[in-house]
């Protein structure tokens, strides 16, 4: 069981969340071209290690939270609100 | 180098079994060699699972390319080749998938003769249940799609399902079983034997299987592949094939490729052994759950992904709880059984739920991956098509649609229509 430290509700079980994928992908500018749009929709880094990802706390505060989780060990380092940057990644 | 042909005396047969049986089983030979890496090969296949070994077998057997190495970081067959639920079937809806998986099923049907190895293919039938009129309509549509393409499909009504499988919860008030779509030629095969059979057959043709040889880099000269860096030194190669489903993103990244793939956990379970109960493969229509019985007597079953990116090869408990609930609602008697073992494999989940076997922009580098749930049943055709693509430098019609370019070109093969969400495929 993953315990996700929701910044609004505290540590909550993963059952209360929906996974929504890689949080590092950013929508490109409308005129960025087909390749940029393709990368946004389809390609992923898919790292073996630390991964910044979206979880939707649908059975709690209903916020989307950004969680930094290790895909090899399932360790969770941080969870922040959608507009915030995680300290590790912004450093 | 001429292909090595197996001496008649080394072939597996009923006669050989009898001879070894009465002489103390002392004449069996090692099934595949443990060679040292050569400096250079025509083709290096990265990944000693079913797909990589099958590719080597068909390269040697169909295309006469025997100067081939299969490199694997540990012993062969300990990845997804040893972590699946052993189901073979070809009951797909979309023609690109049906063509490919039906060819795979045809290869399964002749695989034992081809390999001289008992891979225990058992065409016991695969039954997909439906629980509502609209699910029945979808099953009819799928069945018609299959039959138009020459695949066997039979619509079975509720009474016939009850007669076949009296232990199912037919009259569940929420999900009554109205019938099922049966593929009689579907069934199971022995997963480890598939690995060993392909390894032995490839080895007999001169393929070097290099175990404990982890690839750490893919060396290029300009736009062309020249070999692979490994923990056992550099190995030169004219062509390199990647067949490492689960880790495709990581290995492809060594060549600078970024793929429409995420790695996810898929769990499987086996119960204690019981007397014969389930004589086919059953999949539930009201939840994602599939089950069959092994020859040893255990019930083997699985369901959904855990649902988040992971390379851990360890499943998590919320999925276990959900899956057991779904299983018991289909077969109430399951609640009285104990689960003996549980494990998880890493599945390459693509953005449309379909695989790829294709060339890449880098000359001499070929890609095989994105197998989602479908890797085991695809093993022979995956190897066959990948070998064709590598040998001829162009795809066979069976895998012509299975490219990674399809996402950019808008030609998705989205069997489930779940959108670009790998965890939802």
From TrEMBL, chain B:
Its main location: cytoplasm. It is found in: Cytoplasm. Keywords: Cytoplasm, Nucleotide-binding, Oxidoreductase. It holds the Pfam family DAO. InterPro entries: FAD-dep_OxRdtase (IPR006076), FAD/NAD-bd_sf (IPR036188), SoxB (IPR006278). One of its GO terms (cellular component) is cytoplasm. Residues 42-388 form the FAD dependent oxidoreductase domain. The keyword Nucleotide-binding applies. Gene3D superfamilies: D-Amino Acid Oxidase, subunit A, domain 2, FAD/NAD(P)-binding domain. GO terms for biological process: tetrahydrofolate metabolic process. GO terms for molecular function: nucleotide binding; sarcosine oxidase activity. This is Sarcosine oxidase subunit beta. It comes from Bradyrhizobium jicamae. The lineage of its organism: Bacteria, Pseudomonadati, Pseudomonadota, Alphaproteobacteria, Hyphomicrobiales.
């Amino acid at each position: 069981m993953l315990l996700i430290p929701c910044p609004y509700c505290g540590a909550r079980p993963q059952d209360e969340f929906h996974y929504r994928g890689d949080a590092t992908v950013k929508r490109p500018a409308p005129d960025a071209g087909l390749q940029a749009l393709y990368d946004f929709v389809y390609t992923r880094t898919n790292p073996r290690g630390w991964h910044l990802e979206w979880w939707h706390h649908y059975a709690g505060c209903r916020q989307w939270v950004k969680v930094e989780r290790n895909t090899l060990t399932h360790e969770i380092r941080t969870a922040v609100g959608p507009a915030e940057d995680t300290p590790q990644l912004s450093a | 180098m001429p292909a090595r042909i197996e001496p008649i005396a080394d072939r597996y047969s009923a006669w050989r079994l009898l001879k070894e049986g009465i002489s103390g089983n002392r004449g069996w030979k090692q099934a595949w060699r443990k060679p040292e890496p050569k400096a250079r090969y025509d083709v290096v296949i990265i990944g000693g699972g079913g797909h990589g070994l099958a590719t080597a077998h068909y390269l040697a057997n169909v295309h006469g390319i025997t100067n081939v190495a299969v490199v694997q970081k540990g012993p062969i067959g300990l990845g997804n080749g040893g972590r699946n639920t052993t189901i073979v079937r070809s009951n797909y809806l979309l023609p690109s998938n049906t063509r490919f998986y039906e060819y795979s099923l045809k290869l399964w049907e002749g695989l034992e003769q081809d390999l001289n190895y008992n891979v225990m293919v058992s065409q016991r039938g695969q039954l997909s249940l439906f629980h509502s009129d609209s699910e029945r309509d979808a099953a009819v549509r799928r069945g018609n799609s299959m039959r138009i393409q020459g695949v066997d499909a039979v619509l079975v009504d509720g009474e016939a399902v009850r007669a076949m499988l009296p232990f199912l919860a037919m009259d569940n008030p929420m999900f009554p079983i109205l019938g099922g779509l049966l593929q009689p030629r579907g069934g199971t095969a022995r997963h480890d034997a598939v690995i060993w059979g392909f390894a032995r057959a490839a080895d007999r043709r001169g393929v070097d299987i290099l175990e404990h040889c982890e690839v750490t880099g893919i060396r290029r000269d300009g736009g062309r592949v020249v070999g692979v860096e490994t923990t056992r030194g550099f190995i030169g190669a004219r062509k390199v094939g990647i067949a490492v489903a689960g880790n495709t993103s990581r290995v492809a990244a060594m060549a600078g490729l970024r793929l429409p793939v995420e790695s996810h956990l898929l769990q499987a379970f086996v119960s204690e052994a019981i007397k014969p109960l389930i004589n086919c493969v059953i999949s539930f229509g009201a939840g994602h759950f599939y089950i069959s019985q092994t020859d040893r007597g255990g019930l083997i079953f699985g369901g959904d992904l855990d649902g988040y990116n992971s390379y851990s090869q360890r499943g998590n408990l919320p999925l276990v709880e959900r899956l057991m609930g779904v299983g018991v609602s289909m077969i109430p008697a399951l609640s009285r059984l104990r689960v003996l073992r549980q494990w998880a494999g890493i599945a390459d989940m693509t953005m449309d739920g379909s695989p790829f076997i294709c060339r890449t922009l880098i000359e001499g580098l070929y890609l095989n991956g994105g197998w989602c749930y479908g890797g085991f049943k695809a093993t022979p055709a995956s190897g066959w098509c990948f070998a064709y693509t590598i040998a001829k430098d162009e795809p066979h019609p069976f895998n012509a649609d299975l490219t990674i370019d399809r996402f950019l070109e808008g030609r998705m093969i989205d069997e489930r229509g779940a959108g670009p969400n790998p965890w939802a495929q």
